[in-house]
Amino acid sequence: MSAREEVGDPRYHVEAADRTMQLLTAMAELAPVTVSGLTAALGWTKPMVYRLVRTLHACGALRQTDEGYSLGPQMIYLGQAALKGIRLTDVARPHLATLHEAVEETVVLTVLDRTDIVYVDFIETEHLILARTRLGARLPASSTSSGHALLSRHGEERIRALFKNHEFTGPTGRAVRSVEDLLDRVERVRRLGYALIDEELAAGHRAAAAPVLDHAGRVVAAISISVPASRVSVARLRKMAENHLVPVTFAVSTALGHLPARPVS
């Protein structure tokens, strides 16, 4: 039996390891938190939580303050070691495949390089298309849904500085024509969770994109769905974005170590 096949096999399940991971995950979400707080959150007995907390504290995995317990320096070391082994395209590829299977359209992984987006991975649709995608291709961030998504965590000053001398051009009259237009598009991404362009990059082309975040909450990539306007309406593309694209980018972000902020109660 391979190591992959052993995952989930009850013969190889270690209850103590499982409980340790549950406690550390709860700690990451709730810290600083007391033993009583952890007991309530996990639904375990207080003696069980206390013993596990004290053991992890002794190992350096937790630290104690007046407010309770938080993740300790050993977890920082382990987290950094884990991040070194993560390659964006390797993490994203299976999720791209899932998205492609769901929407049956071209899906693309891009990164930002100053005012351009760069294609780093893609899966093309099996439908007839006018233009082929290629790795390393560059497009202006201002005219693309991926660009708007990639800029969604940039502040206004940073965007203005980046595009200070940028020539806003586009083959159609719908393209972004100024920094003000671009700021409006970026704000829309923050509000909706995804970007959408309708025949702005090219006539007959529509696309939606959502940002991928890393462990520090930085946008490190965007994933997009590219469709022909003749086959996919704006309403249908929005449904693809909301039902498939956003969940996929959330999954990739989670795989890269991103933990969404907890709502303030």
From TrEMBL:
<keyword id="KW-0804">Transcription</keyword>
<keyword id="KW-0805">Transcription regulation</keyword>
<dbReference type="Pfam" id="PF09339">
    <property type="entry name" value="HTH_IclR"/>
</dbReference>
<protein>
    <submittedName>
        <fullName>IclR family transcriptional regulator</fullName>
    </submittedName>
</protein>
<dbReference type="InterPro" id="IPR036390">
    <property type="entry name" value="WH_DNA-bd_sf"/>
</dbReference>
<feature type="domain" description="IclR-ED">
    <location>
        <begin position="74"/>
        <end position="258"/>
    </location>
</feature>
<dbReference type="InterPro" id="IPR005471">
    <property type="entry name" value="Tscrpt_reg_IclR_N"/>
</dbReference>
<keyword id="KW-0238">DNA-binding</keyword>
<dbReference type="InterPro" id="IPR050707">
    <property type="entry name" value="HTH_MetabolicPath_Reg"/>
</dbReference>
<dbReference type="InterPro" id="IPR014757">
    <property type="entry name" value="Tscrpt_reg_IclR_C"/>
</dbReference>
<feature type="domain" description="HTH iclR-type">
    <location>
        <begin position="14"/>
        <end position="73"/>
    </location>
</feature>
<dbReference type="Pfam" id="PF01614">
    <property type="entry name" value="IclR_C"/>
</dbReference>
<dbReference type="GO" id="GO:0003677">
    <property type="term" value="F:DNA binding"/>
</dbReference>
<dbReference type="InterPro" id="IPR036388">
    <property type="entry name" value="WH-like_DNA-bd_sf"/>
</dbReference>
<dbReference type="GO" id="GO:0045892">
    <property type="term" value="P:negative regulation of DNA-templated transcription"/>
</dbReference>
<dbReference type="GO" id="GO:0003700">
    <property type="term" value="F:DNA-binding transcription factor activity"/>
</dbReference>
<dbReference type="InterPro" id="IPR029016">
    <property type="entry name" value="GAF-like_dom_sf"/>
</dbReference>
